[in-house]
Amino acid sequence: VLAERPDALAGLVQAEELSVSLAAHSVTAYCRNGLGVAHDLAGDRAAAAEQHRAALAWYDAAGSTSGVAYSGARLAMVTDDPDRARVLAVDAVRAAVRTADPRAVAQSLEAVATTTGDPSQAARALGAAEALRAAACDRLAEPQARILRHRRQALLDALGSTSYTVQTRRGAQDPLAEAARL
Q1: What is the distance of C-alpha 72 from the center of its chain?
Q2: pLDDT digits (tens, 9 = 90+) for 41-76
Q3: pTM (2 decimals)?
């Protein structure tokens, strides 16, 4: 999906069907998140939300903190209700912080950056996420990077270059502390 292969959706559907038939619930949840990403990239946010919601429900029931963090962050980014999206993103950050995985925290902070209506908070979250990804040598796939570039530009337009730079640097100074403040 993230390599933007045209056959990705069909392959994910087959993988999900196989995992369901084998009762491999964790693989099914993983496939559903993949399908959610695929639907999101194809512009079908409702289908994406449905898939991420199903994955989140399973991870929550299974007690998988990392699954809750990832699924919640992805669901936040496709939820049409801004208030619900914000709650999901913050919950995802809190779960991600408990995993101690910088990539999980970064992804959840990116969800905050794309869902909050506060441009300063969004810029701090984006700066913190970028710092965590850089420290973990974790580069975003191009489709996800494209989404964040658009958000970055919107934040630059809203805040101005100087304020945007100040806020992103503030978030990057101590990214885990920035995440813990949410």
Answers
A1: 7
A2: 888 999 999 999 999 999 999 999 999 999 999 999
A3: 0.90
